[in-house]
Amino acid sequence: MSEADQVREYRLTELAERAGITVRTLRFYRERKLIPPPRREGRIAWYNDHHLARLRTITALLERGHTLGGIAELMAAFESGRRDVGELLGLDGGLPAWSEETPVRLTPQALADYFDDEATAENLTVSLDIGYLAVDGDDIVHISRRLLDASRALVAQGIPLSAVLAAGREVREHVDAIAETFATLLISHVLTDADTRGEEIGETVERLRPLAKSAVDAELSMAMDRRLRAGLAERADRRAEDPGRPPPDQ
C-alpha cells in the first residue's frame, strides 16, 4: 500500500483540532451519531481521515444553513447509499459502452451547493434509489454530468427537485422500453453472429449510436409539439368555460 493510500489515525483532541472544532462539539456529534464510531484499542479511541472528512462535511453544511437534524438525515441516507460504483456505471468490463455520459464525483457539500435547500435526505434517498447517485468513500458519484446539470437547471426554473426526480423515474421506465426496442433490432438484424468479437461490436456501436439518437430526438421533438399544443389548448378551453378562474400559477 502506498503512503497516499494509507488512512491516518488521530486521537480525539487531534481530530478536533484538525477539524477546527472543540472536543466538546466532537463528542456531541459522536453522541448524535453524526460520525461513525471510532476504532477502540483498549481505552483509546482512534479516529481516521474518514471521520475528518465527515466532520468537515458537517461544518460546511452547517455554514450553508442546514440544521443538525437535517444533516443527520442526510448522513443516514449517505450511509445507506454505499454500493459498487462500477456496477452503477455499468463498468463490468464486458461489452463496449453505448453511453457517452461522464460521471461526476462530488463531495456532499458540493452536491448541497447544486440544489441548496432542495438537497434533502428524502431527495438524496430517491436519487440513490433511482440510480442517479452512489456513495464511494467520502464522495458521491452522479452517473451523468448532463443529467446533473439538467436537474439543476430545472430546479432553477422553479420545479421542485422531488418533481424532477419523479419525472426522471418515469422517463427511465419509458427509455428502458425504447432501449429494448433498439437492442432487439440490433441483435436480431445486425449483431446476428454469436461469435462477434468485442471490437466488431464496438465499431457497430460507433456507427449506429448517432442514428438511434437522431431517431429518438426526432420522435421526442414531434411528440413534445403534439403534447404542448394539446395541453395549452385544453387549458385555453377551461379558461373560456370559466373566465373568472385564475391562472394555475396564482
Instruction: Please list the strands of the largest sheet in the order they lie side by side.
Output: 1-3-2
Distance between the termini: 62 Å
Biggest pleated sheet: 3 strands, antiparallel
Alpha-carbon Rg, integer: 24 Å
Structural class: mainly alpha
Q: Describe the global form.
A: flat
Mean pLDDT: 85
Helix content: 55-70%
Given as residue ranges, the uncertain stretches (5+ residues, pLDDT < 50) are: none
Order of helices and strands: EHHEEHHHEHHEEHHH
The proportion of residues in beta strands is 5-15%
- Beta strand count: 6
Can you count the helices?
10
Question: Which key terms come to mind for this protein?
Answer:
10 helices, 3-stranded antiparallel sheet, mainly alpha, 6 strands, flat, 250 residues
How would you portray this structure in words?
This protein has 250 residues and is mainly alpha-helical. 61% of the residues lie in helices and 8% in strands. The protein is built from 10 helices and 6 strands. The strands form 2 sheets. The chain has a 3-stranded antiparallel beta sheet with strand order 1-3-2. A 3-stranded antiparallel beta sheet has the order 4-6-5. β5 and β6 form a beta hairpin. α1 runs parallel beside α3 and α4 (68-80) packs parallel to α7 (121-130). The radius of gyration is 24 Å and the shape is flat. The N and C termini lie far apart (62 Å). The model has no long low-confidence stretch (mean pLDDT 85).
